[in-house]
Amino acid sequence: ARSAQWRETWQLRAAFAARLSAMYGREVPAYTTLVDVSREVNEDVLRERGADAERLGAIGRVTAERHGAIRVGTPAELQQVGRVFGALGMRPVGFYDLREAAASAVPVVSTAFRPVAGDELARNPFRVFTSLLTPADPRFFDDELRARLENFLAARELFPPELLALADRAEAEQGLPDSDAEGFLQLAVAAFELSGKPVDRAWYETLERVSAVAADIGGVRSTHINHLTPRVLDIDELYRRMTGRGIRMIDAIQGPPRWDGPDVLLRQTSFRALDEPRPMRQPDGSVVPGSLRVRFGEVEARGIALTRRGRALYDELLARVDAAAPATAAARADLARDLWPAHFPRTEHALAERGLGHFTYHVVDDRPRDGRTPPPDLPALLREGWVRADPVVYEDFLPRSAAGIFQSNLDESGTRQGGEADAGAAYDSDWLSGAVERDVLDPFALYEQQESRSLERVAAALRLDPT
Ligand code: OOG
Ligand code: NI
């Protein structure tokens, strides 16, 4: 073991998440309210439901759990993001194309950096949804604007070389000595703060005409965390309490409806932050007071990871709700709630049996020990009490919800022309792997691996069972 003055990767990750949260709470007061209310709701749920409340994660993990979001402009910047998060044991998982997922203009493709191994997630599951601007998509940018944008982006520096050097060391050595950890954490948090430097108003507004997201990414010389999201055990209750405190939430909770069957995937809701004063540089060079409204708050409830089949069913139900074209968010929620019970299994057991949800399987300690041989198949092993199924929590994101979150926090819808998506680059998962210079992992494959490894352990344990 290394000395006490050594910080392991997960300790760096936990410390980074905590410091980022402290910074965000200082600068965006409504976030502090959100964290407080989330904690209250979680304590109440724990009191009411007992151990059942922790079925999808121990309360320690859930209380510390956060995700953030950042947006960057170039593959080179994304590669650097990959190094900073690599130092924290976070790898790119999933490819999300938000250019199509929203009604308005969101010219980005995204991935999420997160820990991958089960024990790492249990220690601290911090994740960051990371979006990359798509200047080569002609539906958003013409050649001239694209060239200006790429020049502007090429000339800025998001991460100081000292930070990247420490990140590379931390990743290679899987941690840092305390003395270096402090500097690394300070530089990393600073890199994600909202800068106080003057914003070039004309350039910002030029990009805003394409999309508020384009301006947020390419209109300034730095990046920033745009939200941090705590996890809550009852998001409907949280929504009511936040509204009761006078914080105006968006009009819906995104994702699956509330119902009396198992919670699956992810439910999220958000609120807009306030204008924040930031200096603006006028075309004549003078600097005047201005404001940006680019940071917000979000909260989420996590459910069981679905298999590819389960996800296809979810997407199909969503499409059916869309097809009915409900006029309001409330009508939409009612429709989904009515549709769900007819199609989605109402128990975890049925979710597992129909191959719709992911579970890990574990040999039960007080299994039959009277010399019987265990039955040969999983359903019988479960039925006869040899093996227990634990739900796998969904650790990723949903493109539709993500697009909804982007959209609900934009002032204007911007413009997206019709036509073919990509004359220049095909923005897909492989392209993104190339940009970040790391494999973008497939979330379904990760869940499948987790499940099949647990089954291998069950098989080995039951064969070796001495009784
Ligand atoms: C990211 C929005 C996506 C989520 O939770 O789905 C997201 C952004 O606005 O940059 O964070
Ligand atoms: Ni989010």
TrEMBL record:
GO terms for molecular function: dioxygenase activity. Belongs to the 2-oxoadipate dioxygenase/decarboxylase family. Its EC number is 1.13.11.93. The keyword rRNA processing does not apply. Its cofactor is Fe(2+). The keyword Chaperone does not apply. It is an enzyme of class 1 (oxidoreductase). Keywords: Dioxygenase, Iron, Oxidoreductase. This is 2-oxoadipate dioxygenase/decarboxylase. SMART domains: DUF1338. InterPro entries: HGLS, YdcJ_bac-like. It comes from Streptomyces aurantiacus JA 4570.
